[in-house]
Amino acid sequence: MIKRILVIDDDEAIRKVFLLALEGTEFQVDTAPSGAIGIEMIKEQSYDLINIDLKMPGMNGVETLREIRKINPDTPVYIVTAFFGEFEEQLNAAQKEDLKFELMMKPLTMSQIVSLARGILNGAVIY
Asked: How much of the chain, in percent, has pLDDT values that exceed 70?
């Protein structure tokens, strides 16, 4: 069974990096340019892993996470950001709300993206 990954990021270059990194792997990758579009996609399709940018216009990553958890409380969600400090208070609030997520700092290499996906979805060792 193919495992599906959704990448929500307003930066087209980042979405392309995820697509290129996971091209030819065992994963189906979809992308969304905003939190709102990502939420609509999640309502229509089940995903095994969701990667979210934190700093986006409209719904930021924390707001997107809250909406995702209303739809699916168990899908692994990784917030991938270079702006931790700017959103630290919101991330702490999300943890206090018991919203499950992991945080990774940008930039990620293509091999890190593949290792992360395989580690989470296939139980492989993450390097």
From this structure: 97
- Choosing among 3.30.420.40, 1.10.101.10, 3.40.50.2300, 3.20.20.120, the CATH entry for 3-122 is 3.40.50.2300
How does residue 85 score in pLDDT terms, banded at 50, 70 and 90?
A: confident
Q: How confident is the model at residue 127 (pLDDT cuts 50, 70, 90)?
A: very low
3-state SS assignment for residue 28: strand
Query: Pairing relation of β-strands 27-32 and 77-81?
Result: unpaired
Chain CA centroid to CA 21, Å? 14
Helix 61-71, helix 84-96: angle, nearest 10: 30
Which tokens sit at 113? 């993206």
What pLDDT score was predicted for residue 84? 85
Alpha carbons within 13 A on the beta-carbon side of 86: 10
Residue 113, number of CB atoms within 10 A of its CB: 23
Whole-angstrom Cα distance, residue 20 to residue 11? 15
